[in-house]
Amino acid sequence: MTRTHVTEQGWNEAVGRLAGGHVTLLSLWADAGNVLMALLEGDDVRLLNYACVGGRYPSVGAQHPPAIRLERAIRDLHGLEAAGAPDTRPWLDHGVWRGKARAPYDFLPADGEGLHQIPVGPVHAGIIEPGHFRFTANGEHVVRLEERLGYVHKGIEKLMEGASLDAAAKLAGRTSGDSSVAYSNAFALAVETALQIKAPPRAQYLRALMAELERLANHFGDIGAICNDAAFALIHAQTGVLRERVLRAAQVCFGHRLMMDMIVPGGVAHDLAQEGPGALRALLVEVRKRFPRLIELYDNTASLQDRTVNTGVVRGDYARQFGAGGFVGRASGRDFDARRNLVYSPYDALKFDVPVLEAGDVNARVWVRIREVEQSLALIEQILERLPGGPILAVLEGKGASCEGLAFAESFRGDLLVWLRLDDGGKIARCHLRDASWFQWPLLEAAIDGNIVADFPLCNKSFNCSYSGHDL
Amino acid sequence: MRRTLFENMTHKVLTEKAPAPDEAALAELAANVNRTARAKLGRSLSIRQVDAGSCNGCELEIHALNNAFYDLERFGLHFVASPRHADVLMVTGPVTKNMREALERTYNATPDPKWVVAVGACAADGGVFAGSYAVAGGVKDVIPVDLHIRGCPPTPYELLKGLVSLLEGFGRSRR
């Protein structure tokens, strides 16, 4: 993917097309005094480059709100200003990186009679990641939720600069631990695109196998956790067992429960163990025996449905405007899946459906996951049937010149984007990783509007956005 | 639902045998844990988990401790929602500079006697994130640590071994 260099006029035209809903924003990032914007037009990806003048570029967020947090992050990390930006508060930078005290943060105001604020986090009550939620409520009803993120910012993109491919691949795989496979996959694909090589066919199939195992494990975890937040512990206990069985199968197949560092640029680091196919077939049998009964239970429990139906509705137009991926987008009618729309091997050779619902509530996000579990099971079956033989790792040859690559992978929570530029020595000059959560977190603020405070954990769990993937 | 519940009573239990304590962890504890304090707590400990900057991989495996296979609560260990209810802080991640103050405040909010268990490669020394402008270091660089459980992420079995050592450490000191 080569960059199209645009003038201010060309940049603003693209912003106009974003605001008009003709194209979808895939990401916005900075590279050496330039700002890059990846756009989705139909199923085609375009990459625009604007060379900043005096450290400034025309704001995208001024007309297209999904870009606002990305612009705030660009300013925090690269010092480039979005001219005309509607929100100039820092985002990832809490003011402490250079040894100073925490900077005060101005939350957006909410005026009205009888309003009170509830500050929650960054340390939460469960075993979850840190972030701050500021609720303004009238009694039980939420009138405004504002998120304050960035607590787990580790400086991943900066650590990657100058790193070898091996070191950078390890960092990519730890951007969001629950999506380790998807990140490693997207990173490897981006490197391979830059170097114009392809992983061997067997490696491509093994990558897909790992990706579907990761999706299964996370969906089981999520479905159970959502039910648990509605105080229905039985399903949580049962899906917890299914999740554990998936991770144990992964351990048998690849020697690591979360399959970290198994996907590397050029292929995969670990071939499928001899006992792998047997363990996977046993897993499929077990899941197909247990899971349908749990779905039936979910569907027939009125007290559970009472909590999930019509709760935390994401409007379809918001899902499309923000280009929300994964179950958040697909539960609100956005029919997009990187495996199908931005097709990458071996998904072009595999048969699967992309379930899409319209209701946009917690219930719809549960059902999209349920349907995706069924699709992943079918995909694992196909992969086992067709798994080609041959090598699992291609030789990486540096190009001896600077080169760039852009790639996508569908994580369990939506599409990930990885863009990178390699220097002439084959090291990372710059790498940008965009989690699916960037375009989902803002919708959570909208989804909770008008709901009661007690339903927030349920809404939040049904989104299950990544803090680490977002904070980088 | 009845069928699922009934099966749970008739089928064999999934919960697995308890692991032996980790000898290295025992040695670390012997040096760190105050004897009189151990005697007060016995074998029931409340754990407050704090993510100080992890990639969330450790959280996934800590969660797994509660599933039927590992069933952490059979040991008298359970997770609580507030540091004010906790005896043990279980901290993951490199400590990011943005989380440093929250971790210190959580530590200060935990009543004495208390122990800190640092979980994962990052919690030990920053792991792959060490040296970043945004990272303060491992957990011990911010608050005192009594026990390290290593791994990226440590498996639930390794976590269990470490935590069983914690209980064992208390038990031995009381004898």
Strand arrangement, major sheet of chain A = 1-4-3-2
Tally of helical runs of chain B: 7
Task: Tell me the span between the first and last alpha carbons of chain A.
Answer: 24 Å
Helix and strand sequence of chain A: EHEEEEHEEEEHHHHHEEHHHHHHEEEHHH
Strand order of the largest sheet of chain B: 2-1-3-5-7
Question: What would the principal axes of the Cα set say about the shape of chain B?
Answer: globular
Number of strands of chain B: 7
The number of distinct helices of chain A, counting runs of at least 4 residues, comes to: 16
Radius of gyration of chain A: 22 Å
Strand coverage percent of chain A: 15-25%
Give a structural overview.
The complex is a heterodimer of chains A (472) and B (175). Helices cover 41% and strands 17% of the residues of chain A. Chain A has 472 residues and is of the alpha+beta class. In chain A, the strands form 5 sheets. A 4-stranded mixed beta sheet of chain A has the order 1-4-3-2. In chain A, helix 4 (165-172) runs antiparallel to helix 5 (180-195), helix 5 (180-195) packs antiparallel against helix 6 (201-229) and helix 8 (276-300) runs antiparallel to helix 13. By secondary structure, chain B is α/β, with parallel strands linked by helices. Chain B is 41% helix and 16% strand. In chain B, the strands form 2 sheets. Chain B has a 5-stranded parallel beta sheet, sandwiched between helices. Chain B has a two-stranded antiparallel ribbon with strand order 4-6. Chain B is globular and about 55 Å long. The interface between A and B is large, with 51 and 50 residues.
Q: Any chance you could write out the topology, listing elements then pairs?
A:
The complex is a heterodimer of chains A (472) and B (175).
Chain A: E1 4-5, H1 8-19, E2 24-31, E3 34-41, E4 44-51, E5 56-58, H2 68-78, E6 81-83, E7 116-120, E8 132-138, E9 141-148, H3 156-160, H4 165-172, H5 180-195, H6 201-229, H7 233-254, E10 263-264, E11 267-268, H8 276-300, H9 302-308, H10 316-321, H11 326-330, H12 338-341, H13 362-386, E12 403-411, E13 414-422, E14 428-434, H14 441-447, H15 456-463, H16 467-471
Parallel strand pairs in A: 1-4, 5-6
Antiparallel strand pairs in A: 2-3, 3-4, 7-8, 8-9, 10-11, 12-13, 13-14
Helix pairs in contact in A: 4-5, 5-6, 6-7, 6-13, 6-15, 7-8, 8-13, 13-15
Chain B: H1 2-10, H2 23-32, H3 35-41, E1 45-51, H4 57-64, E2 77-79, E3 88-92, E4 95-96, H5 97-109, E5 115-119, H6 121-125, E6 135-137, E7 147-149, H7 156-174
Parallel strand pairs in B: 1-2, 1-3, 3-5, 5-7
Antiparallel strand pairs in B: 4-6
Helix pairs in contact in B: 2-7, 3-7
